[in-house]
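Q: What would this chain look like folded?
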Amino acid sequence: MAAKMTALGHKVWFYEDTEGGHSEGADLKERARFEALETAYLLKTLAD
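A: My prediction, written as structure tokens:
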């Protein structure tokens, strides 16, 4: 999907957790890290 959107001229942000698995935030520390990534992305996007 990211390749298709890029080909159509859309800006694409992609994050893939290198730990694998089907569930982000398996424990509180991992969930907090993912929430921090989401918040940082949102704040950067709003600031631009």
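The mean pLDDT is 83.
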